[in-house]
Task: inverse folding
C-alpha cells in the first residue's frame, strides 16, 4: 500500500502513465480491430465531419480517421522504441568507455559525439533517410543515430563521477574485471539518469518521425503515420479542420505524456528516496 | 622481545603527479605527494600514519597497493619486490591486503545488497561453494556485530558506523594479512569512533592482522597504534614507538602537533605551540628542510640542506638538524 500511496503523490507520474498506457492499449487493439478498414477508400464518404460512425470524421479518400490514428500508434511506438534502443545501446557503450577509460579515448569519442551533435538533428535524419531510403526502420535508425550523443554524454558524466569513488576502488582491489566494474557496479548507479534521458529520446523520436513523415520522407503511404496525416490534412484545413486536429492532438498528447513521465521518473528513480 | 618479522619494507618511495600545464611556455611541474619515504612495517603491529591533509598519507597507502604507480623507490612484501607485478601476480599480492576506506557512504555501492558486497571478494578470489560463501558472509556479519538480515538490505539503510562495520567485513572476506585503513573513523561521530576502533583491534587480535592506520587525528592514532610515523609534505619527519613518541616528541612539528591535542588537565597548563602559516604547496616544496618555513627553531642550515631520518633514541628516528651532533 505504501508504494501505491507514494505513486499517488506524484500527479505527473499518474497522468504520464495513464496517457502511455492508454496509447499502448489503443496500439494493441489496433492489431486486431479498427472500426473501419484502415486503407480502403470510400470516395463518396470523403471529408465527412465527426459522427457516431466516423468518430474523427473521414479524410480526402473517405478513410476513417479514427482507425488511421489507431493504426498510427503502431508506427509511432515502433519508431520510438527502435530509436531509443539504438540510441541507448550505442550511447551507453560509447559513454561508458569514454567516461571510464578517460584520456585520449574519451577525447576521441566525445569529439565525435560533438560533431554529431553539431548537425541539426532533423537535417541529419533527412540526409540519412535520403541516402538509405524512407521507411520505418530506416527512419528509426537515422533518429537513433541522432539520439546517441545525448545518451553518451549523460552516461559519460555519470561514469566520470563514479569511476574514482571508493566503492569502485574497493572493487578494483578485489580483482573485479573492468567490464564488470563498468556494467555491474557503475551502470546501475546511473541507470535512473539514462532511463529519464531515454524517455525524452522516445518523445523526441516521435516528434521527429512526425516531422519526417510530414516532409514525406518518413513512413510511406498507405501506412498511416500521424505526421503524414498532418501533412495531407493541410490542404483541407479550412473545410475539414477535424482532419488536422486528430493527428495533431494524438502527437501532442502522447509527447506530453512521455515528458510528464520522464519528469516524474527523474524524481522517482533515486533509491535514496525510498526510505 | 624477539626480533620482529618485517612484513613490508619501503625504501625511498616517491610518488609524483604531473600537473597539467596551462601553456607550452610554462615549465613542467609535479606534485610531490610522496617524497622519499622509507619505513618498515612489522608483522602484527599497527603503524599509525599522521599528517595534515595534503601531507600525502592517503597517496602513500594507495601506492603500497599499487593503486597509485610509484615514481621511484621499492616496496618489499615479505622480502619480495612488488613494483614489477602485473595481472594475476599483482592480484595474488593484493589478495593479502585489503583497504578500509574513509567515507562509509562512498565505499559501498548504493545499488548492491550488503550480502553481495561482502560475498563478491570471495566469489572472485576464493574457491567456495555458494553455501559456504553465504555461511561466511553470515559469520563475518556476526563478527562485526551486525544482524544476519543485514544481507538483504541496501547500504543506505545503515548508519555511518554500521556501514564502516560492513566495510570491515568486506575487507576480512578473503583472509588478508595486511589492512590499510585510510582514515576509517574520521567521518564518524566520536561516540561511534571508539566502537569501530575497538572492533578493528578485536579482529586484529583474532586474525593476526597488520594495520597501516592513516589518520589526521592524533588521539585516534594513539589509541590504536603500536608505532607512529609523522608525515609532513610527503616526508616522514619522525617515526617511533607510540609511547616514546607521544611522551617525548623530538621533531618541532611533532611537538606542535601534540601540543594541539586538547586535554583535561587543570594542574598543569600546557604550552601550546602555534604554528605560523600554512602547509606549503607540494608542487613547490621548500628547499632544504620541508618544515623550515614554519619551524620555530629554524636555523640557517635548514634552508640549505635536507635533514635525513636518523636514529635518536631506540627505535625513534627523526629528521631534524637540532639533533645533529
Result:
Amino acid at each position: 500500500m505504501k508504494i501505491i500511496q507514494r505513486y499517488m503523490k506524484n500527479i505527473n507520474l499518474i497522468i504520464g502513465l495513464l496517457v502511455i498506457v492508454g496509447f499502448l492499449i489503443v496500439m494493441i487493439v489496433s492489431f486486431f480491430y479498427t472500426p473501419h478498414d484502415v486503407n480502403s477508400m470510400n470516395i463518396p464518404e470523403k471529408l465527412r465531419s465527426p459522427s457516431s460512425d466516423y468518430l474523427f470524421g473521414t479524410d480526402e479518400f473517405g478513410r476513417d480517421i479514427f482507425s488511421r490514428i489507431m493504426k498510427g500508434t503502431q508506427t509511432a511506438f515502433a519508431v520510438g522504441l527502435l530509436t531509443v534502443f539504438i540510441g541507448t545501446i550505442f550511447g551507453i557503450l560509447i559513454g561508458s568507455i569514454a567516461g571510464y577509460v578517460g584520456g585520449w579515448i574519451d577525447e576521441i569519442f566525445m569529439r565525435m559525439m560533438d560533431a554529431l551533435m553539431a548537425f541539426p538533428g532533423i537535417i541529419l535524419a533527412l540526409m540519412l533517410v535520403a541516402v538509405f531510403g524512407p521507411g520505418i526502420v530506416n527512419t528509426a535508425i537515422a533518429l537513433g543515430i541522432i539520439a546517441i550523443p545525448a545518451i553518451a554524454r549523460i552516461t559519460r558524466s555519470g561514469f566520470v563521477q563514479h569511476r574514482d569513488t571508493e566503492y569502485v576502488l574497493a572493487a578494483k582491489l578485489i580483482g573485479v574485471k573492468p567490464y564488470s566494474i563498468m556494467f555491474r557496479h557503475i551502470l546501475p548507479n546511473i541507470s535512473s539518469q539514462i532511463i529519464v534521458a531515454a524517455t525524452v529520446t522516445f518523445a523526441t523520436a516521435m516528434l521527429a518521425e512526425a516531422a519526417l513523415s510530414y516532409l514525406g520522407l518518413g513512413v510511406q503511404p498507405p501506412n498511416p503515420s500521424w505526421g503524414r496525416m498532418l501533412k495531407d490534412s493541410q490542404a483541407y484545413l479550412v473545410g475539414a479542420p477535424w482532419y488536422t486536429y486528430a493527428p495533431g492532438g494524438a502527437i501532442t498528447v502522447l509527447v506530453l505524456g512521455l515528458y510528464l513521465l520522464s519528469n516524474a521518473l527523474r524524481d522517482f528513480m533515486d533509491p535514496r528516496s525510498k526510505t | 622481545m624477539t626480533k620482529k618479522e618485517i612484513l613490508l619494507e619501503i625504501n625511498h618511495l616517491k610518488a609524483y603527479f604531473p600537473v597539467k600545464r596551462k601553456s607550452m611556455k610554462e615549465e613542467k611541474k609535479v606534485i610531490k605527494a610522496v617524497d622519499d619515504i622509507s619505513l618498515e612495517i612489522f608483522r602484527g603491529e599497527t603503524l599509525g600514519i599522521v599528517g595534515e591533509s595534503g601531507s600525502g598519507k592517503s597517496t602513500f597507502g594507495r601506492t603500497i597497493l599499487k593503486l597509485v604507480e610509484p615514481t621511484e623507490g621499492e616496496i618489499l612484501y615479505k622480502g619480495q619486490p612488488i613494483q614489477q607485478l602485473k595481472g594475476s601476480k599483482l592480484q595474488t599480492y593484493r589478495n593479502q591486503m585489503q583497504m578500509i576506506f574513509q567515507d562509509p557512504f562512498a565505499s559501498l555501492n548504493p545499488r548492491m545488497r550488503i550480502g553481495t558486497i561482502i560475498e563478491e571478494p570471495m566469489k572472485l578470489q576464493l574457491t567456495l561453494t555458494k553455501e559456504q560463501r553465504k555461511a561466511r558472509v553470515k559469520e563475518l556479519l556476526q563478527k562485526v556485530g551486525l544482524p544476519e538480515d543485514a544481507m538483504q538490505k541496501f547500504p543506505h539503510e545503515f548508519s555511518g558506523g554500521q556501514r564502516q562495520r560492513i566495510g570491515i567485513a568486506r575487507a576480512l572476506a578473503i583472509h588478508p594479512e595486511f589492512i590499510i585503513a585510510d582514515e576509517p573513523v574520521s567521518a564518524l561521530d566520536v561516540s561511534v569512533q571508539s566502537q569501530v576502533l575497538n572492533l578493528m583491534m578485536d579482529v586484529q587480535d583474532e586474525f593476526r592482522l597488520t594495520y597501516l592506520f592513516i589518520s589526521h587525528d592524533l588521539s585516534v592514532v594513539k589509541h590504536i597504534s603500536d608505532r607512529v610515523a609523522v608525515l609532513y609534505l610527503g616526508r616522514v619527519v619522525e617515526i617511533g614507538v607510540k609511547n616514546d613518541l607521544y611522551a617525548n616528541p623530538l621533531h618541532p612539528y611533532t611537538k606542535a602537533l601534540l601540543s594541539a591535542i586538547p586535554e583535561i588537565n587543570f594542574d598543569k597548563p600546557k604550552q601550546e605551540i602555534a604554528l605560523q602559516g600554512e602547509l606549503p604547496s607540494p608542487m613547490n616544496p621548500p628547499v632544504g628542510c620541508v618544515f623550515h618555513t614554519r619551524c620555530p627553531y629554524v636555523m640557517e642550515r635548514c634552508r640549505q640542506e635536507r635533514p635525513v631520518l636518523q636514529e635518536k633514541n631506540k627505535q625513534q628516528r627523526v629528521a631534524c638538524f637540532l639533533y645533529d651532533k
About this structure: DSSP finds ten helices and twelve strands in chain B. Chain B touches chain A at residues 65, 67, 91, 94-95, 97-99, 101-103, 106-112, 120-121, 124-125, 154, 156-157, 170, 174 (CB under 8 Å). The first helix of chain B runs from residue 57 to 64. The longest strand of chain B covers residues 6-19.
